[in-house]
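Here's what a typical entry looks like (Dihydrolipoyl dehydrogenase):
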Amino acid sequence: MSKKFDLIVIGAGPGGYVGAIRAAQLGMSVACVEKYTDKDDKLALGGTCLNVGCIPSKALLDSSWKFHEAQEGFKIHGIEAKGVSIDVKAMIERKDKIVKQLTGGVAALFKASGVTSIEGHGKLLAGKKVEVTGPDGETEVYEAENVMLASGSRPIEIPPTPLTDDIIVDSTGALDFTSVPKKLGVIGAGVIGLELGSVWRRLGSEVVVFEAQEQFLGLADEQIAKEAHKTFTKQGLQIRLGARVTGSEIKRKQVTVFFTDAEGEQQLTFDKLIVAVGRRPYTENLLAADCGVDKDERDIIFVDDYCATSVPGVYAVGDMVRGAMLAHKASEEGVMVAERIAGQKTAMNYDLVPSVIYTHPEIAWVGKNEQQLKSEGVEYKVGVFPFAASGRAMAANDTGGMVKMLADAKTDRVLGVHVIGPAAAELVQQGAIGMEFGTSAEDLGMMVYSHPTMSEALKEAALAVNGHAIHVANRKKR
């Protein structure tokens, strides 16, 4: 007789492992199935985010920024740093060490919480049974009262640029370059493409980013996106909008990319090419034909507002369901599912899921942008405060960008916070906290902020919404 659990989770990424731990805290017997192995061929928990996504990319972003600062940013502070060089191997080793520490931390949390970790590929069968194929190819079937599908996503591959071992790579391969490419191509000017392009540009690569869309950062507020485009171009990223890649050819350890844009058919040659055109749900051999769970043609599993699938007792979270493919969104869905199984009425506010791009400057936003409010016919007010007027930003020599706040014209309720600049993610989170409690711009403007801080830029933007900013000239009312 196979062992039965209150909950079996398939996938130990940010949705799965967080949901498993929360369910165990609530007194359930929980098992979590994961097949991913690290460079040493050992089981590695944490999913894409911890192993080959959010965490390792931030490690490289921080290392490369420190190198860039030493090369170009120290002089203004009176610091002479001559002959600064980068040891790419040491940088990659540091990244790997951080990943190992965090994935090992998840294993320790499982142990402390009483979650049973099962190594292998999980497949949902009919009747809430889960078949696990172990590393040795042996299969075992487990029974569950509830199942949480959390198998995440994988990078999308495109026919014009088939991946190779070392020249044409996806986002995972781009985290393991052993040297700085002289010329680097990046397909996709989204979050991943811009972050990885930034890393290698700072280290000395000549970087060209191809974007099929005519508009840059279409999901961001237009004003913020324009500022970002200007800033990245100044940093040396060559961003080609409306550029459709049609093919590629590898010769003498270089790749020639063929593309079309407004100027017609063109080609450029690179030492490395990163394909970062998005991700798709990982559902390969996940669902038995008779398991009853429905998905669409893009492999997105159908769920309701509470992540329940069409099968009672079976849930799906994270990158494999509707909404943004973000680790923090997946984690909160995992918690929501665990608590709802336990009988709680937990719900998630999908209107306030923050988005962040960890370039320098950082870009972050929460709530609605101007384009959305215009298309919805909502009357709104705008408050903008530039970091150029922030004493703290000046002291840090980090004055690029702005904080932008949007509020309802009638009620003054804050509808969106958009930031490009230092500590953008942290400032947007402050806005999200206020918005969760229905804050008005006036509320935020009346709060006492410590001085000097980057946070004051949020207060000043809130004041500017109603023409009360102190440290920047207010817009004249029409």
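The two ends are 76 Å apart (CA to CA).

More examples are in the samples folder.
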